[in-house]
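Section 5.1 Outputs to date
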Amino acid sequence: MERVVSIAIVLLAVSAADATYYCPIPEENFKTTLSSKEYKRGFPIGSKVKFYCSEGYELFGSEASQCTADGWNPPTPICFLQVTCTGRGGIRDGSVSPSKGPYFAGDEITYSCETGFKLIGAKTDICQNSGEWKEEKKPFCRAVTCKRLRAPPKGFADSEYSAYFPGEEIKFSCQKGYRITGSRKNKCGRDGKWIYESTPKCIEDEVSCPTPRTPVNGGIEPEKSKYFAGDEITFFCGSDSYLNGTFFDECLENGKWRYDERLACIRTTCLGADLSEYSDWRPKRRKYFVGDKVEVECEDGYSTSDDNQVVCRSNGNWSKLPRCKKVVCYIPKPPAGGYVLPVIGYKLPGQRVRYFCDEGYKLIGRDHNVCTKAGFWKYDNDETPTCVEQDRCRFRTAPEKGDVSPRQRSYRVGQKIKLSCEDKYYLDGPAENVCEEGGEWKYRWTPKCRKYCVFERDEVDDENIVHSAIQRRFEYKAEIHFKCKRSTLLVGDDYVKCGEDGVWEKKIPKCVPVCYRPTVQNGKLLDDKSLKDVFVEGDTAEISCDDGFRPKTAGKVTCLSGGEWDMEEFCISNKQRCSEKEVRNGGARPKEPWYEPGASVRYFCHIGHILTHGDGSNVCMSDGTWKFPVPNCRGHSTTSFCAGRCGRRSDYRRYPCQCNITCRWFKNCCSDFAETCPGSGN
């Protein structure tokens, strides 16, 4: 069965100078998973390829290779067929699972028999790494049989085989002068048991039959002088022949034999089924007579070590059957300065080996060989490849502030060197170079050792600045970006760049506190299209207040160092407050130093005084004046005061404060009632 090998390919960066060089696509069983047209000619230098084998194949050689100017390095591997086992076909009256090959090393097969047969031999077999089966012989199926039954005393059984197959019958008879009691017949069941467990008995009787005829080249069982009615006899032949008629007879009650045939033993034949272990034999028949010759053939990959002709012998068996041995080619000798893969072992017909050269050598000739069906390598010693030494590359100068390893006067083709730099420097270019065919280095220019730019985090003392640096050292053209935290403004460029000499090209910026454009309650900033949204310390902004409001200061606010404006309330109301007015011999409730427009107060007088005018209430106007003139309190006699204030229950609405004998039930009783109205009776 044909197998193919899939290749997974990873293409690395390829310089423009190498783009015109290609490595050939691997031949024969190889194919790529790429469909791009640009790789139909081959793979560009620098391409890396990883190889995988299909199921049933083994990979020999490196699983990865890279395209160089000298071709694939290391050489492309090959995929060999895995070890297989053959010579295990089906079995007669049975089956094998799995039934289809090929069988590889480690595969296991299981044998089973049809109903009525049992397996003789190992039930399972395993294909080993040597290509041979674990069991030397494969099993076969034998029919289920019943055990041997012996004839009764003074009696006979028509057969006394060591075993009987299901469905076969045995008949019993007695000697002359005896008759049988019990069943004359018994039958072997499918389960390997007789239908009747006991054999019949022979009792004495007077009727007998004449002596029976013995088959030519055969015999009679049992053999005795007299056979009585009911007796049964069995005719038998040698192991190399068979009977040409009925194999038993019975003495009847009339004194005659039931069949009384003239019998003879004819030699047996050899069976073609005994040759089933071979893939074919000729001529092909089911049966062969004594002396017939047959030529046998082995399966592909096997051959007979002896004569492949067998003869049917007189005993019904074949002469010595030749053994089929696996055809193999042992691993050939490697060329000087090279090696062969695989290194040891052997290969089956159709399988290959590959030739390789050591580093510094080049293969001249065919890089593979094939095992033939005859067990020889297809290409003989005259076509064995050779390995010749390749050109060498000159000493490679180390870069300034750097080193090269190993240091040699010259290098062989395929040898690699490594470049490195001193501390505080890094390599700007490939760190590895390889000597290619023709004595030229893969990279013909020497990379430079550049100095790192160093960024010390502790040098950034501004707690409001944030940077993108996650390491301390940076290479040429590397950048660090900066930004500020909220309420601060970045002053300077937002990044620095590493220069060629290891010095930062720009200075680290700073973050300064800022005031954001204020939101003015009851006002707004002056309408100026150039007005900015962010202000630094010392910047001012002019404010315009809404109608009915005025600036709290001169109309300007200033950004302070902490990022705050110098005043939180910018616009205040134009409305004025009323001041507290002194009431002689009295007061006002509530008592406040200032009253907002619309606020109400109520005046009161001390004991013995009354208001000079008004009902005692007043309201603060929006212009900062009181609605009514503020009254004073003047003195009055007790009598007239009480007369003016004390009255009946029904007239309490007349005065702001009522006092009478029932004042305890009113909420507006005078607090000075007991003192000012002593005659009231309370």
